């Protein structure tokens, strides 16, 4: 392949989506990643699109402002609802219970599809509980879909490490940094913190709805059916880089989920998966000049990476034509 117009760093959902947007606009795109898509954090994401109240903070000086993240959420939901209509994407629209241990303002949910308050029996011991119908994503299948779509648009995926942005800048006139939590080391960016998440995958005992606890606690109760698999969560360990599954956390996750759905207690465990969300006070979506190349940063999405993947990729694509060579 000739020298690319754009080098994208990272093959998670942010990197692949950005690469697809650029390649489908005629750019020569190479994705360079230390890990293949199915070994990234994105592959183990629970991937239910979150509500606006769970978007990044809405302080007056925060960026992006709440108006932007709310718009991104709306655009992300629309994009994944459209993908749910296509066969082979791994995206579907599913009903699920959203719960919280504290009562709160959930007016943002009232106009969303499938909203209805839960019955007392459906609260499962939580103070707040309601139903929604939202796009959910089987991430291994979806990452495969994005990889195929990138190849169909002429993009390439290379497995290999990029040790610095200066190294990347020598390879292409435009570099898009979608390194996720690894941006802490690559940039380096001290504002990026890994948030370790552990999930347990079991045989689905027959569930066709999901359960999602919206919380910023270190331990949450959630499960997501994807055909024969059921993904159980979860944890949030800040500044924890350990990839080794914690057997105590595994048992705690199963116990929390089984307290809601007893059939989970006897479901056969298929795997235990660990990933690192890229936590940052604000998503970084901006550019800088390094070694004569434009470097566009697109990371720090924390738990909203899937939901924000398409709107942020479109924003990057809007920045690239000014410098990219066709």
From TrEMBL:
Sorted alphabetically, the Gene Ontology BP terms of this entry are:
D-amino acid catabolic process
Superkingdom is Bacteria
Q: Which GO terms describe its cellular component?
A: cytoplasm
Enzyme Commission code: 1.4.3.3
Q: Does the keyword Flavoprotein apply?
A: yes
Q: Which UniProt keywords apply?
A: FAD, Flavoprotein, Oxidoreductase
Main EC class the enzyme belongs to: oxidoreductase
> Coiled coil: present as a keyword of the record?
no
Which intervals hold domain FAD dependent oxidoreductase?
5-317
Reactions catalysed according to its record: a D-alpha-amino acid + O2 + H2O = a 2-oxocarboxylate + H2O2 + NH4(+)
Q: Which cofactors?
A: FAD
Alphabetically, the GO molecular function entries are: D-amino-acid oxidase activity; FAD binding
Q: Which Pfam families match?
A: DAO
InterPro entries assigned to the protein according to its UniProt record, in alphabetical order: DAO, FAD-dep_OxRdtase
Similarity field? Belongs to the DAMOX/DASOX family.
* Entry protein name: D-amino-acid oxidase
Organism source for this protein?
Sphaerisporangium rubeum
